[in-house]
# Entry
Amino acid sequence: MFGVDLTEFIVVIALGVILIGPKDIPNVIYSVGKVFRKIKAVTSDVNRSIEVFMTETELREIADKADKAVKDESKDNDRTA
# Structure
C-alpha cells in the first residue's frame, strides 16, 4: 500500500488506540479525512491555476511570434515596393 507493510500498519493502529483512545478514533479519522480532502482541493486549484497560467503564457508567446512575423512581412513588402 503506501510503502507500509502489515506489521507497521498494526503498530500504528495500536499506538493510535493507546494514545487517542478507542472512543475518539472515529472522530480523529473523520477529521484527518476532512483535512486530506481540503488539501486535495487546494492542490487541485493550484494545479488548475498553473495550467491556466501556462496556457496564457503559451498563447501570449504565439501572439508575439505572429505579430513579429506580420511586422517582418510588412517590412519585406515595403522594401520590394
Notes: DSSP finds two helices and no strands in the chain. The chain has one domain: 24-80. Residues 24-80 form one domain. The longest helix spans residues 25-80.
